[in-house]
Amino acid sequence: MYPLRFRRKVAGKLHSCRREWKEEFWECVKDVAMHPVVLRMKLYPHHGSTNCYQHCMNVAYYNYHWCRFFHLDARSAARAGMLHDLFLYDWHTHTKETGDHFHGLTHPKVALKNASKFFELNHIEKDVILNHMWPVTALHIPKTKEGWITTLTDKYCGACETSRRYKKKGHKVV
Predict the structure, then answer these.
(1) Is the peptide bond before 135 cis (omega within 30 degrees of 0)?
(2) Structure letter (DSSP) for residue 40
């Protein structure tokens, strides 16, 4: 076990980095996050009581931190995280309204199409948006490290957001 003094020093450095990175994160995503089309995601429920905008903000935030930690393209990962679910409909009622039973498989292409209309995307951002649903979309495998991180971050955030719903309703989360 590491001495207490060492652990406190490391914790202090991590806290300092997180504060610094939080400001840098906002600088990377603020133009995307404040765009009128992206703000429309607030209208659509996503996981539990989380709306689509908040889910994307969560994914973008963790993408930035993980990619920054691993010395990857944190800016692209964060921006793509904000856009990865830019499908602009309530997926809970989508099947009933359109007959499309495959939202989980089709929404990455819809999100990429929508994001491409409003933003200039680099190859990492395109990879993240198109492939974030792997392994559900078995043929769309991430080709970048940032894409793999987003795949994991998206699942993590979705699970946390969904489990909060169950806690609020009084269900026991196993």
Answers:
(1) yes
(2) G
Q: Where are the beta strands (DSSP E) in 17-163?
A: none
At 72-99, the pLDDT tens digits run 999 999 999 999 988 765 655 656 666 5
Rounded to whole angstroms, the Cα distance separating 15 from 138 reads 38
Task: State the helix-helix crossing angle for 74-83 and 4-33, rounded to 10 degrees.
Answer: 50
φ/ψ bin of 61: left (φ > 0), alpha (ψ from -120 to 50), beta (otherwise)? alpha
CA-to-CA distance for 84 and 61, rounded, in angstroms? Answer: 13
Which of 23, 87, 12 lies closest to 55, judged by CA? 87
- Give the model confidence (pLDDT) of 124-165 as tens digits: 999 999 998 887 777 789 999 999 999 999 999 888 888 865
Cα-flanking dihedrals φ and ψ of residue 114, to 5°?
A: -65, -45
Q: Give, in order, the Cα–Cα distances in Å from 135 to each of 40, 84, 131.
A: 28, 15, 9
